[in-house]
Write a structure and sequence with these properties.
The complex is a heterotetramer, with 2 copies of chain A (241 residues) and 2 copies of chain C (225 residues). By secondary structure, chain A is α/β, with parallel strands linked by helices. In chain A, 22% of the residues lie in helices and 24% in strands. Chain A has helices spanning 9-12, 34-43, 61-67, 85-92, 103-114, 178-184, 225-230, and strands at 5-6, 21-24, 48-51, 71-76, 97-100, 120-122, 136-139, 142-147, 152-162, 185-195, 215-218. In chain A, strands 1-11-10-9-2-3-4-5 form an 8-stranded parallel β-sheet, with helices on both faces. A 3-stranded antiparallel β-sheet of chain A has the order 6-8-7. Classes of the chains: A alpha/beta (241), C alpha/beta (225). Chains in contact: A-B, A-C, A-D, B-C, B-D.
Chain lengths: 241, 241, 225, 225
Amino acid sequence: MIDKTIETLAEAVSLIKDGAVILVSGFGESGNPTELTHALIDHGPRELTLVNNNAGNGHVGLAALLEAGLVSKMICSYPRSSHSEVFNTMYREGRIELEVVPQGTLAERIRAAGAGIGGFYTRTTIGTSLAEGKERRIYRGEEFVLEDPLHADFALVKADLADRWGNLTYRMAARNFGPIMCTAANTTIVQARKIVDLGDIPPEQVVTPGIYVDRVVEVTNPISEREMIAKDIRYIGGEGP
Amino acid sequence: MIDKTIETLAEAVSLIKDGAVILVSGFGESGNPTELTHALIDHGPRELTLVNNNAGNGHVGLAALLEAGLVSKMICSYPRSSHSEVFNTMYREGRIELEVVPQGTLAERIRAAGAGIGGFYTRTTIGTSLAEGKERRIYRGEEFVLEDPLHADFALVKADLADRWGNLTYRMAARNFGPIMCTAANTTIVQARKIVDLGDIPPEQVVTPGIYVDRVVEVTNPISEREMIAKDIRYIGGEGP
Amino acid sequence: MTEILSREQVAWRLAQDIGDGSYVNLGIGMPEIVANYIPDGREIVFHSENGILGMGPEPAAIEIEYDLINAGKKPVTILPGGAFFHHADSFGMIRGGHIDICVLGAFQVSAKGDLANWSTGGPDAVPSVGGAMDLALGAQRVLVMTDHNTKNGDFKIVEECTYPPTGLGVVGTVCTDIAVIDISADGPVVREKVSGLSFDDLQSRTGARLLGVESCGELKVPVLD
Amino acid sequence: MTEILSREQVAWRLAQDIGDGSYVNLGIGMPEIVANYIPDGREIVFHSENGILGMGPEPAAIEIEYDLINAGKKPVTILPGGAFFHHADSFGMIRGGHIDICVLGAFQVSAKGDLANWSTGGPDAVPSVGGAMDLALGAQRVLVMTDHNTKNGDFKIVEECTYPPTGLGVVGTVCTDIAVIDISADGPVVREKVSGLSFDDLQSRTGARLLGVESCGELKVPVLD
């Protein structure tokens, strides 16, 4: 019998070790696995490499993980934002490494890793500093650069519905990086708003098939990072928020 | 106002000219746009290149298009089947060119064309005759071959629901090549079982967003190629079947 | 006296160039207000990089959904006919040339249509590219919406970009607060300029040699609130 | 007297090696019957190349859906927890190494695990590869289900394949009608052979040098209808 559901957030992230490369879903403040991220802070592995579109906001979720000193490298497309002071400070002080990847290339590199693609050519970055040192190809008269797949040890993903096989749906635009991140990690850990019975998600409406998911934990009322940031709430570890 | 719906099958395929490269959805006898294919026979462009997983069965749909002498080249993964006598005969007699592409590479080449990818690396075909003459790459100690995107002038696709913006859903495993083919053609022509009001397809359940679709024609009770083959019915053009 | 367009008027003018049925991505910031000035009767499908087609306007406060934000992280709505999809699909749509029009801001646009809009190259800046390069290269047509000059009076339309480029030869048209300029194979061609501004005056405010002295028309916009 | 396994018994034996919770693709033809012999209590998710996970058995005639067929084009069903997806996603799943086990037929398997199962290389054959190469390379473990020898008595397990290869070094285990043979780094190791068959007899029916004379056990299967 297949049952990927896990009782606690702590158990869900317990396998993550020092030095792990971790994909974290979300875009801005939508689709972030905030509870899993906080559980990861409590678990406390160090020297992590994180992959996310951004680099955390306020003092919660990803930003709290950075602030806890657990992250040595960020791979993202857009670290700078109106609330990214934690990352900005660490970056300026040389306390964190940054790899900036254009958003579409970031998404495609993650997808490529999940789909067994050993590199792909894109026109994105041609003529810019971000193409420096990259292999080129001319195809039909246009120049492309070679990009590598982006594999990870773990993915932390927020979903809406899940079942015990790990099938997932996502809510509105909170889908963003979730489905591709699930495919690209050795171990995919999901927090879902609701765990439903097998068969409750119609097979045409499954967005992430369970084959890509290893662990699912139910978080019924996920906290809103946006509200926490607006209220300047900090995640301090242990009991909350 | 955007209204991609077209009244007749004949009008839907009227732009297709001699020498066109056409993606045709379907796998075996599921998801084939049989009515569009028959309308194309009546329209009669010549020297076509067709892309499909297979090469037609019996004397209907794709096989009838071949039999009508309109096709000069097939790109497919598996032309041979228990009912592929039309293709087999033409191939043995040297009347049709064949490019055999492994099924996963065929799908990925189509997807690459739709997604602006200028080539990708796959391990599939390494060590086989199908890799001969292809560029190689070693990535993380493994050998990959370079494959090109597969662009087309037209796609003929069968869907289940559609709306006037061209949003589509597919029924069960009839989805197969439809969603990727819609993305890879300059002009995508769809036959849908039912045209519904805008908004009737929930935004999380849209499989092909309308941006990829140019023309939609309603075919309420699509014929079953499987039944036609079983009854040895031939498509003879003009009025039917 | 030279009339200078407000941001809303630049957005209005740019919106006139967006044809019925277009698929359009509006860049973060100033370009977003273009959505408010689409002429009546034109149905436009707005795309957002984070996986939305058919994006609608900002919701009333009570209807805000934080799972439904645009690429600028602001709450939006979804119209009937809209769709959600994941990030690889969203950027496949962009990179694959399916977006008809993208409206972007700019630090600089060159005479050849090179765009610089992602970095000023300063040593202290946190480099942040987002989807700018994908959009600049992928959209069928890139429309730039910008003030004609910087606050210091520096040129933004230049012979060669001095800021790091986002993409080369990608810009189709620049709509500024004083002119509409198409980037042709021969260089920038003035299509329209505001009344009271001579071609020479416009040239003096522009860092690249302008064409179209014979053919250019008047840039007329309504009074907007 | 040497016992020779029926196809159903080979399928049964192979099914014993498929662990609870495995994601499994069964090749077209003979491998499909493996699904009938999964031990009670094991939940297996079957994948079909045409975009199905959670594929169930053949339906009753009255419930046949021609939009729900497997890769062999036969009508199937979908179980609770199943999912449909498009072809690029389906082969991303295969190529990306997400399928635990793939069961394939074979013309030949070499001592190094090379597989030949897509073409006999005949000049008259219509070349048809389908998903064989993707599956052979992509699945975590390839199990081959085959008769030990051809109808003419020729070797199918050989030092080097003479038929065109599908993939190199891909085969994990071969289940035949007389033996279970694992492909190790050193070559084929007999895990089990049928009672009444000596190791020398098995070697004489095999075109590659076999290992495991000391350790191999008996291949025991139940009587099946």
